[in-house]
Amino acid sequence: MTEFPRISKRIGAIAESATLAVDAKAKALKAAGRPVVGFGAGEPDFPTPSYIVDVAAEACRVPANHRYTPAAGLPELKDAIVAKTKRDSGYEIDASQVLVTNGGKQAVYQAFATIVDPGDEVLLPAPYWTTYPEAIALAGGVPVEVVADETQNYLVSVEQLEAARTPKSKVLLFCSPSNPTGSVYSAEQVKAIGEWALAHGIWVIADEIYEHLLYDGATAPSMPVVVPGLADRTIILNGVAKTYAMTGWRVGWMIGPKDVIKAATNLQSHLSSNVNNVAQRAAIAALNGDLTAVDEMKVAFDRRRKLMVSMLNEIPGVVCPTPQGAFYVYPSVKGLLGKEIRGKVCNTSAELAAVILDEAEVAVVPGEAFGPSGYIRLSYALGDEDLIEGVTRLQKLLSEAK
């Protein structure tokens, strides 16, 4: 009898989401009574605005929402996405270019699955969100890391992309504002990268999920708006999670050329069918409303951002650039590697993160989850008191490095 592997090679090669793993461990330790401060979660600490919740509650009582609906999304939500995209980005599309997905992660997976064939190379600026390389690999693609360090504010250049390009390069993943670094490409940089992609026939998958979380006057123009000729080779990923504090509602979307969206819709019709109708109704309310809620959140995020950067830069061996977007900081901890902290020598940021959790009861995500070692990611989407307590513990522990 042939002995087959219990787990397929494709699925067995997938690594657990490092950010979710850190968050789960922090919550488990808290539940066990330990005073852990968790900087791992990438979600606003605010509740979903009440007017959105009210619409969802009413939608639960409508029988039509208890039934199957079109796999590509409720027509009303697709229309709201069309209107929102023109309002916020100046990008004009129609409903046939929209596919509503179960959160942004499904949009990421389906984008790569739809246009990437086995062996196709995907240029992946690093540091990158931990899910991107796994989604590329699941599609049979080959992620090609293009690394930008803290001296570049984690922003890759056209010259770096060109150096990484080969005849197999099909796609560029572009995320601005960035997770995990919070870095934001200027309009000039977006245009230069877009024109380079257009000149070489490179597809662009642009993750715009943090588009409204910007500080210090930064802007995040949509690439097909500044380079219109690229529209036929661009897929935009977005959702309501970060802007409206709706991470748990699981509503995202893809925008792209009609043939790509039709193919991705065919995939979704077999994979998951329609997104939860009540969550879709909530998303309609969110998109048709104004941005008052996010503006209020940004006041708190901006305050926390400045405080966290200032406190981290007081630690010897830590270099923390000031992010202009999202709700993360991404300090370099290279100056601490190889040093001893409470009897333990940490040669990687993963080892350092483990010591930080054990000794300071603070959960951070190590740089290995996002590319090269030597960094940690901290989210400032948590209460001010917890932020101060957590970073103060880091200051105390890491100042002992010798």
The share of residues in extended strands comes to 5-15%
- Strand order, largest beta sheet: 2-8-7-6-5-3-4
Tell me, what is the CATH class of the largest domain? Alpha Beta
CA distance, first residue to last residue: 58 Å
Mean pLDDT: 95
Number of domains: 2
Notes on the protein architecture:
Helix content is 40%, strand content 14%. The chain starts with 8 loop residues before the first helix and ends with a helix. The chain folds into 2 domains: 145 residues, Aspartate Aminotransferase, domain 1 (Alpha-Beta Complex), CATH 3.90.1150.10; 239 residues, Aspartate Aminotransferase, domain 2 (3-Layer(aba) Sandwich). The longest helix is centred in the last third of the chain and has 21 residues. The strands form 4 sheets. It has a 7-stranded mixed beta sheet, with helices on both faces. The chain has a 3-stranded antiparallel beta sheet with strand order 9-14-13. A two-stranded parallel ribbon has the order 1-12. It has 402 residues and is of the alpha/beta class. Helix 12 runs parallel beside helix 14. The model has no long low-confidence stretch (mean pLDDT 95). Strand 6, helix 9 and strand 7 form a beta-alpha-beta unit.
